[in-house]
Amino acid sequence: MKELASLARLDGMAQAELCARGEVSADELLDACLARIDALNPLLRAVVTIAREQPRPASPGPFSGVPFLVKDATPWPGLRWSLGSRLFAANIAQQQTPYGRRLEESGLVCVGKSAMSEFGLLGSTETLLEGATHNPWDLASSPTGSSGGSAVAVAAGLVPLAHANDGGGSIRNPASACGLFGFKPSRGRTVPASFASSDFGDMTSDHCISRSVRDSALFLSITEDRSSGTPVGFVREPIARKLRIATWTRTMLGAEPEPPVRRAYDEAVALLTELGHQVEPIVPPPFDGPALSDAFFLVTGAAIAGVVEMMDQTRDVPVQSDELEPFTWALIETFLARGPDALPYARAVFAQAVHAYHEATRGYDVVLTPTLATEPWRIGHLSPVLGREELIRRTGRAVGYTPIHNIAGCPGMSVPLHFPEKGLPIGTHFAAAPGADALLLGLAYQLEEARPWKDRWSPYSIPALF
C-alpha cells in the first residue's frame, strides 16, 4: 500500500520520468493504477469502465507508460462509450479519433472511462445509468460536472491526469470543486476529439484535468492542431511580465457570489497584486442573462434532438422514454417546440454576448472572476429527475461565469488557490483572448509557484488513506 501512495503522489511527467530511467516499468505503473482504482473507486464511483485487458504497450512519447482516463463523452476503441446515457449503455466504440491517436502516440495508457452527466448536459455527475459520483473532499457533496469522474479520479490519486471536455465549464467547475488545475483551450486549438458536429459541439473544448500545470501544458502541446494559427507548443515557464487584469464578481444573471467564494476571490486579488500585476475592477459586460441561459439550453437541446433523430433512423424502434433522463427529454421538447427559428435566435443572442464581452475586456491581458458562484453542492441538488425550470434556475445561480468563454472561444482556467480549513476547495477563474493559451499557462505556473497545491490531498484519496 505504501507503494500505491508514493506513485499516486507523482504527476504524469514525474511518472514518465521514472519509467524512462528504468526505475519502474510501464506494467508496474499500470498495475499500481489498477490497484488504486480497485481500492477507492467502489466508494467514489469515478471510473465507469475499467480497461483491465484493453491497454496496449506504451508508445515512446513524453508520457510513456502513464495511465490516464478518458471521459465517457469521447470514444476509445474497444471500450464502452455510453455518454452517461442508458440509450448507449451497450455501445462499444470501434474507431479512434485524431485526438485519441495523439494521446496514444504520447505514450499515455488508457485504463478506463470516467463518469459524466448524461451527454454532459448538467453540472453534476449523477445519472440514472451510473448513479452518483462522490467528491473525495466530502462524500455527500458533488464534484459538480459534467467531467466530475475525471476530477474525482485525479483528486483521489487514482490517476495523475484525466481527459475531460468543457462546453460551459465542465472542466473548470469540477477542477474547482476538487482542488485541481482545470484548463479549457481556445476554440479550434486542438485536433478533433469527436466525429459529430453541432453548435454545442463547436463550443466544447477537449483537454484534461491535472494536478500540475506542467502536465496540462504538455497535454495541450500533444493535442494541439499545429496547422491552425501559431502553435502554443510546450509552455514550460512562469510568465515574465506584469499583466493588466480586469475583474468582476457579478454573474451573468446579475447575482453576487456566496461569502466563501468572495473570500477566495479576494485572496486571489491580493496574491496577484503581491505578484505585481495590475488588477482593475471593471463594470461587467451588460449580458442579458435570461436570454443567454435560454439560448444555451436551446443549443444543447438541438444537439441531443439530433442524436435522437439519428437513432430513430438507424433502428426499428424509436428512442423510448426510459432511455433518456427527464431533463434531457425536457430540453429536446423545448427546442422542438420553439420551431425553426430556435437556433438562429440562439446564435444571435450569443453574438451579442460575445460582442459585449470583448468590448468590456478590450485592452486587458486577462479576466479574473470566481469559477463558481457557490460552494460545491450536495449530491441530488442537480439531479436529472428534477424539473427543467428548477434545474436551469439552480444551474444559473452556480454556473455564472464560465459559459461565456465557451461561447466566445476563449481559453480559460480554474486555479486551486483556496483550501479552507472547513469546507471544499474553491477555484479562481482566469480567461484570456482567443489564442492566448500560452499567456494563461504562464500565469498558471506563476500562481502554482507562489501558492503550491500539489500536496493538498483530499481526505478520501490514496495518499491520505495509505
From TrEMBL:
It comes from the Bacteria. Pfam families: Amidase. InterPro entries: Amidase (IPR000120), Amidase_dom (IPR023631), AS_sf (IPR036928). Residues 28-441 form the Amidase domain. Transmembrane segments: none annotated. Belongs to the amidase family. This is Amidase family protein. It comes from Archangium lansingense.
